[in-house]
Request: fold
Amino acid sequence: MGMTIQDDMFVELTYQVTDRKSGNVLSSVEFPLGYVHGHNDTLAPQVLEDLEGRSVGDVLEVPIDCNQIYGPRDESLVFTDHIENVPEQYREIGTTITMENDKGQPRNFIVTRMDDETLTVDGNNPLCGREVIFTLEVLTVREPTDEELAAGGTVQPDSQIDGVRKVPL
Reply:
């Protein structure tokens, strides 16, 4: 029998996030995500909990109410301004703009709407207010290397050996 996901195990998986209401895929990983189970919070706690005891080849669907992760949607974080007040480099839907509040704390805002006269940004997490399904496929479960354990996940091969720089493929 193969290894199962538990604390201190290296796990690689792919996932996609689908909106329950519309069925639209909201995000997915292009390359497998590698992490050491129990050593980081890359994935939502509910997802990590549902991965416990799973093994290579398992595919699971985890429904998530994003309000529990990101809180309810806050309309006071949506701003519309005259487009001439917005620098040219931010005039594209999907662009992220980092702003600071009066306490100097940064928050990301995403350009969500734009027309000839106005531009709207939204500081809510894009998953806020949604119910989604995480569909995960477990690709690898094994003992981590010392480097992976220390890093909590995949270690990029960018070291130099004999003067030759290794580059991830």
